[in-house]
Amino acid sequence: MNPQRTISLNMGPIPRVREGLRDAARSAAFTLIELIAVIGIMALMMVIAIPSFQSLTKSSAVGIASGQLVNALNLARSQAVTTRSRVRVVFPDNPYTNAMVLPKQSFAILQCTNHDDFSTANWVYLDRWHILPKGAYFSNLNALPAGTGVPFPTNGSPTAANMAILEFNAAGTLTSGSDCSVVVQEGTIQEGTPVAVRAENCMTGLVYAATGRAKVLR
Questions:
Q1: Residues linked to residue 187 through DSSP beta bridges, in sequence order
Q2: Nearest to 72 by CA among 36, 108, 99, 33
Q3: Backbone phi, then psi, for 54, in 5-degree steps?
Q4: What are the tens digits of pLDDT across the range 80-94?
């Protein structure tokens, strides 16, 4: 007969392995104090970053507004040349009471339908009123030529308003005869009063009288 063979299993090390795994798991996990510390650091970083982000947003608002302005001016010039008529970009400066128009923060394009008569009844809006992005406004509208008898706020309105204007003739040049600039400033309008956030953060839309072309000066 073959002698019986017995197999002996040594179970000794297994409990030690389990204890080692538990110790590793405990060392890899966050304690409550560590978790609170991490959350506190993240909150502090957010508090520090928010003002910089807001400043960047406002700065980008000035850039976007300047781009909108120059695009509108060049479009108005092109329309004047194409239709052989006068075309205006108008900027409300006074606190007109109308929901679609924000003083110092709006502009619109109008065209004269009569080549000889430039009275109020012959000016029509080519598009809706455009509003600047929040955080930007026009700061020097009082330096622009004044336009009288602008229909306000839409075509056929019985009300006529006086506004700052930049007007192009059929040749595409400015009717003012001199270069004009519109300054887009970082800030807000509070109860009709401009409040600049950073005076140095502004851009200028310059229109050359001789050519009527507009560009952004940074």
A1: 196
A2: 108
A3: -65, -40
A4: 999 999 999 999 987
3 in a domain, yes or no? no
Kindly state whether residue 5 falls inside one of the protein's structural domains.
no
pLDDT tens for residues 173-215?
999 999 999 999 999 988 878 898 888 899 999 999 999 999 9
Q: Residue 182's domain is classified under what CATH number?
A: 3.55.40.10
Domain membership of residue 4 (yes or no) is: no
List pLDDT tens digits, range 18-53.
Answer: 555 455 555 555 677 777 777 777 776 666 655 544
Contacts of 5 (CB under 8 A, 6+ apart): none
CA 126-152-192 angle, 5° bins = 115
Query: pTM score, two decimals?
Result: 0.72
Domain count, the chain: 1
DSSP state of 5: P
Q: DSSP label at 143?
A: G
Q: Which of 26, 190, 151, 163 is nearest to 106 (CA)?
A: 163
Residues 6+ apart with CB under 8 A from 165: 88, 89, 90, 91, 144, 145, 146, 147, 150
